[in-house]
Structure formats: structure tokens, C-alpha cells
Amino acid sequence: MIQYAAILLIVLGLYGLLTNRNVIKMIVSLNVMEIGLNIFIISVGFVYDGIAPILTSTNSSSALLFVDPLPQALVLTAIVIGVGTTALGLAIAKNIYSKYGTFNLDEVEEK
Amino acid sequence: MKNFLALALTLFLGVLLILSLTGNTQFTTFGTDNTDNRVSSEYISKGAAVAIIYGVTNDPESGPANIVTSIVVDYRSFDTLGEVTVLFISALGVALLIGSGAKQKRLSLNFKPNFMLRVGSRALFGIIMMTGVYITLHGHLTPGGGFPGGAMIASSILLLYLADDEFRSKIKGFKILEGAAGSLYVILGLLGLVLATYFLQNFLPNGTVGNLFSSGIIPIVYILIGLKVGSEISGVIDNFLTEEDAL
């Protein structure tokens, strides 16, 4: 049931992406959406009383109850790609600002 | 009107998602996930019939004690190569869009950093850099690895940029480091193809689970990824903090 909170974050990010015309706010909305998606994927692999999937000297056997490591590995990939797309988006935003003097796409269209 | 339409659309999408998830047999209730019949159980048991014991088991199918690492840089290493390529292309795009004219100066701070700030930031720089290197080196034993370690190294460079108005990193060195680390990753993969059977296969002995010198090429790959990510994000930071010199 708690997973629906992650869906709320995804929907919130989508709403922000649709309604905002400010480039920086759009990038932030995209990030909120991405975080919601990551939380959702991680939460799918959660097990009650499961431990983090790392063998240590205290949890030394692979026969113990672990949480699912596969969603964590996939989210690790997704986070790195999210950083790359955010950096590229911010670079485009910086270019828009230096050319038009505003972050607002409505004002850009007028010029 | 436009906001109302967007609200209706997102509400519709949210309700659709929740309706499709409730009562779906493929979607397990929170916390009752069972990995026994899925590929994850093979990742955890490393394909062995007997349980893997930390510090005892010798030469398992995949070396790292951190199971997420064994997925990211061993079972799905090709995926990680693609991920590193995506990061490289985005760093290249940032450099293309906002950087790399010959005459550039860094953004000036609107305060004069005093002596304490400069010395303190140098001391913190060492600690943050060392933590990043530690996390990169122990990626196969503890949480972390090349990606968070590289991000930490880049954040230490960012600290120097923010605390010292004279500081400017040598961007050319970053470019060389980045290219060398990326091509060494591919060369390691090709070595796996030549010495073993397939691309990016682990051709070194795996050793005992839990030792620092264990799990074959995985620490080497993670060090390369750490160097590559660190230099790439440092290059992106440099691109954002420099501007065309207004002559």
C-alpha cells in the first residue's frame, strides 16, 4: 500500500512537467518523477526482515533472507543516467538564458 | 484551463496505475516479495548449490561480497559499459553546449575568500577525496563502488571551486584520464574475449569472498569507472563554472 506514495510522486512530477513553463522548474519536475520511479522500483524488491544484499562478517551466509538485489542494481543504473540527463538539461537551460535572458518558454516564444 | 486539463490527465493516469496494480497477481504486496523462483535467487546464491560463506568460500562463480556489485559489474557488465557511455555522451554534450572556447575565465565569487576558508577547504578536500577513493576501492565489499566514489571525488573538486576564487582545475588532464579509463574498460572486456570465452568475462581468479584482493577484474573495473565518473563530472562542473571571456 505504501508503494502508492511513490506513484503519487511520479504523478506529481508529471503534473509539474505539464503545467510549468520555466525550464528550471521543468527539470526539477523531471527529477521528482525520476525519484518516484526509483523508489517504486526499489520498493518492489523489499522483504520484511530482509537484510541488505551484502555478505559481511556478521551476516556471513548467502542462505539468509536478503531483499531483492536486482531492482537495486537497475536503480543504480537509472540514477547515473538521471544525473547525465539533468546535466544536459541544465546546459540547455543555461544556453537559453544567455540567448534570451529568461528561463520562461512563453517569453522565449515572444522574442 | 490548461492547468485543469493537466490535472485531469495526471489524475486519470494515477488512478489507472493504481487500479492496474491493486489485485494484480504479478504485483506482490509490499514486503512479501519472494525471490526464490526468480533470477535474483541465482544472483544471491551465485549459482552454487551450497551457501556462500563470507571469508570461507573460495573461488565462487562471481567474487564480490556485495551482491549488487556482482550484478552491476559482473553479470550485467555490458549494461554498465552502456551506462558509462551514456554518461560520457552527456558530458560531451554539456561541453559542446556551454564550454571549451580557448579564452575562458571562471565565474567570480561575490566575496573575497579569507585565509581560514582557503586552508579549511584544502583540508576538507583531502578527506572527501580520500573517502571517495576508499569507497571506489571497496566497491566489491561494502555499499558503494565506482559511481558514488567518482561523484564524491568530483564533489571535492566542486568544494575547491566554491571556496577559492583563484582555483581552476586542469581540464585537459581530466579529458586524458577520462579517455584512458574508458578505453581501458573496453580493452579489459576484449581481454576477457581473448583469454576466456566472452566479452567482459572475469579471467582472473576470484579468490576468497570478502578479501580486498578478490573477485578478479571487478575491483579493477570499478577503479576505472570511479576515475572516469570522477573526471567526467569534474569536467561538467568546470564547464558550468566557466564563462566566455568578455573581451
Characterize the structure shown.
The complex is a heterodimer of chains A (about 110) and B (about 250). With about 110 residues, chain A is mainly α. Chain A has one domain: Orthogonal Bundle (Helix Hairpins). Chain A is about 70% helix and about 0% strand. Chain A has four helices and no strands. Chain A starts with a helix and ends with a helix. The relative contact order of chain A is 0.14. Helices cover about 60% and strands about 0% of the residues of chain B. Chain B has a two-stranded antiparallel sheet with strand order 1-2. In chain B, helix 5 runs antiparallel to helix 6, helix 6 packs parallel to helix 8 and helix 7 runs antiparallel to helix 8. Chain B is globular and about 65 Å long. Classes of the chains: A mainly alpha (about 110), B mainly alpha (about 250). Chains A and B meet through helix 1 and helix 3 of A and helix 1, helix 2, helix 3, helix 4 and helix 8 of B.
Kindly state the percentage of residues in helix of chain B: 55-70%
The end-to-end span of chain B amounts to 48 Å
Which structural class best describes the helix and strand composition of chain A? Answer: mainly alpha
Quick one: biggest sheet of chain A?
A: none
